[in-house]
Amino acid sequence: MADTIYHQQDQQQPLYQQPAQQQYVQQPVYPATQESSLLGVKVSDSQFWKGALLGAAVTLLVTNETVQKGVVKTVSKMTAAAQSGIEEVKEKFEDAKAEAQAEAAAQKATE
């Protein structure tokens, strides 16, 4: 018995220690804050509003024909610009390649 102490005179009868008295501090109790919710969704949450705005934007893009035409036009213009840029780079590469070959041929001719 680890938690018992025996008297030196009387080894037969244990003397139990008194448990330390617990001290309680009373703290003020605050009522829970009321969170506004709509069907169990916290409408004061910033992620809710981000999702709602993103959903509204996607809905507008998917359902509005004028917006769809504008998006398709913009994407096609960007694609055409990218393709013409790629063609320009290819042309410059071919020009540089032809110049390098001409220089190599000129060096062989002078040797």
Report the average pLDDT across residues: 80
Largest sheet: 2 strands, antiparallel
- Major sheet: arrangement of strands: 1-2
Q: Considering DSSP H and I runs of 4 or more, what fraction of the residues is helical? A: 55-70%
Coarse shape: elongated
The helix/strand class is mainly alpha
Strand content: 5-15%
Kindly provide the radius of gyration, computed on alpha-carbon positions and rounded to a whole number of angstroms.
42 Å
What is the tally of beta strands? Answer: 4
Task: Count the DSSP helices.
Answer: 2
Are there runs of 5+ residues with pLDDT below 50, and where? Answer: none
Distance between the termini: 108 Å
H-E string: EEEEHH
Structure report:
With 111 residues, the protein is mainly alpha-helical. It has a domain at 42-109. It has two helices and four strands, in the order E-E-E-E-H-H. It has helices spanning 46-63, 65-110, and strands at 4-6, 14-16, 37-38, 41-42. A two-stranded antiparallel ribbon has the order 1-2. Strands 3-4 form a two-stranded antiparallel ribbon. A hairpin with a 2-residue loop joins strand 3 (37-38) and strand 4 (41-42). The longest helix is centred in the last third of the chain and has 46 residues, at 65-110. The chain is elongated, with a radius of gyration of 42 Å. The protein starts with a strand and ends with a helix.
Characterize this entry briefly.
With 111 residues, the protein is mostly helical. It has a domain at 42-109. It has two helices and four strands, in the order ββββαα.
